[in-house]
Amino acid sequence: MSISIFVLSLKGGIGKSRLSYELSRYISKRKFKKVLLIDNDSLSTLSNLLGHYGDGLLDGFDLRSSLKEIDDIFILKLRNKVYFLDNFYDNERLKQLKFVLSRNWDYIIVDNYVGISETNPIIKIIYEFSQLKIGIFLSDDLSLNSTTEYSNSWNYLDSKYVLLTNKPFDVHYIINRTIIDAILNQGEENYDEKFNIEKTN
User: Fold this and answer.
1) Are 40 and 110 in contact (CB under 8 A)?
2) What is the pLDDT of residues 80-126, one digit of tens each?
3) In this predicted model, what pLDDT tens digit does every residue of 176-198 receive, in sequence order?
4) 3-state secondary structure string, 57-122?
5) Rounded CA gap, 196 and 199, in Å?
6) Which pTM does this prediction carry?
């Protein structure tokens, strides 16, 4: 069973894909853990930025085309087609997803499309393979109230964090390591169920 981290937001262009990648790389290289990074973004932004131009798992193609190892991280691309969101999941594709999730990952990081709900079939399947479920909700000042409401609609996460971003991420300060370490170091017996708002500089 894995520790799963869901990176979520209500706005695009807020740094969600970049955070997902940097978080995955940080865990893999600094913590020496086996990481699966799932690109569940409708535009496949993360995959494209990393040069993963293969077909997505939900597009109905071979798993070898959608699962790639880049920078010591395994990246699973789910789609090439924007319209494959909540309404196109067949049993064979979901079975392939379960096969990938069953491969003893220490961490599963999920970069999600804007406004995804907890009832999404992909989310529900990842939950099945998760011993600990963490939600990181990215927000700016203008969307903080709506992001807080959005986070409240996610009822089955073991802990939730809102990261309030006040400037674009840069390569030298993609995430506050203190905040991220606090999130990663929570023990299974120490679930943090209170609502957390952290502000990046």
Assistant:
1) yes
2) 766 555 556 778 888 989 999 999 999 999 999 999 999 999 999 99
3) 566 667 677 764 344 333 334 44
4) HHHCCCHHHHEEEECCEEEEECCCCCCCCCCCCCHHHHHHHHHHHCCCCCEEEEEECCCCCCCCHH
5) 10
6) 0.84
The Cα–Cα gap between 20 and 169 comes to 12
Q: How far apart are CA 31 and CA 140, in angstroms?
A: 29
Give the chain's domains with CATH numbers: 2-199 (3.40.50.300)
Decide if 165 contacts 200 (C-beta within 8 A): yes
What is the arrangement of strands in the sheet containing 107-112, beginning at the earlier edge strand? 67-70, 73-77, 35-40, 107-112, 2-9, 130-139, 159-164, 195-199
For residues 38 and 7, the answer to whether their CB atoms sit within 8 Å is no
